[in-house]
Amino acid sequence: MTHGTNWPTVDHQLVAILRCHIEPVLDWLDSSGRKRRRPKMATAGKSRPSLYHADPVDFDHLPPAVKQALTVVWSDADASSLGDMAVESTMVPLGISMPEFVLTDVNGHQVESTDLAGTPALVMFLCNHCPYVRHVETRLGEVLHEFADLPAVGICSNDAVAYRDDAPARLAEQARRADWRFPYLVDTTQEVGRSVGAACTPDFFLYDAHCRLAYRGAFDASTPGNLVPVTGDLLTAAIRHVLAHEPVPEPHRPSMGCSIKWRA
After folding, report:
1. pTM, full prediction
2. DSSP symbol at 160
3. Could you tell me which of 255, 261, 262 has the C-alpha nearest to residue 124?
4. What is the dotted CATH code of the domain comprising 87-259?
5. Neighbours of 183 (CB within 10 A)
6. How far apart are CA 26 and CA 15, in angstroms?
7. Are 31 and 78 spatial neighbours (Cβ–Cβ below 8 Å)?
8. Least crowded by CB within 10 Å, which of 134, 187, 189, 225?
């Protein structure tokens, strides 16, 4: 296809096709998304049609649908590795206690785990660069506005040196963009993320009034490109159960998102 072709509306089929061609896509786009050069051609066939341009392409000027699909398959992948694709929650055992922590938020204020004790509380692992988080961020803010009395914190455990979009200043911009009113904490040592058992962004951990894990899993069934509306229904239902001192019916759907960017 050449630049200006009528591209298909983004959906899971387009994402799947692009994932089949992830190696030349990564060769085409570097980690900043600004490299322009002719991509290598993938082997074409009925099951793997080539979607690559014959001429250099400006990524920033691709149609939004294609840009979104490319972002899904590329933005969570390191340009030198194919092993860092979307992952699911580890689904740690229910009933375990919230680990103790003391972290600083993006505005420099200190927050402690003890601030969440005595009432149900939500701990979320989030970041700015991940398209899975961006896909739900506005609705997440709306859901938590509905539960204004529920203590909640967002935590970014990503390596902000390697992923500069997840540096504190960029996280603060995200919070303003999404109208997040909860503290957005920076897990610089990554110890909190590891102790909680976080695996991806977003990853949700809902604790009861005794700081025991009552729900871990997805916001809803929507992911970028699958055409399922973003509602937050799974997390909303879990919150209602926990506030009513009821167990959250199982099975819990695992969250899916970008892997947390652990330092080596």
Report:
1. 0.72
2. T
3. 255
4. 3.40.30.10
5. 20
6. 14
7. yes
8. 189
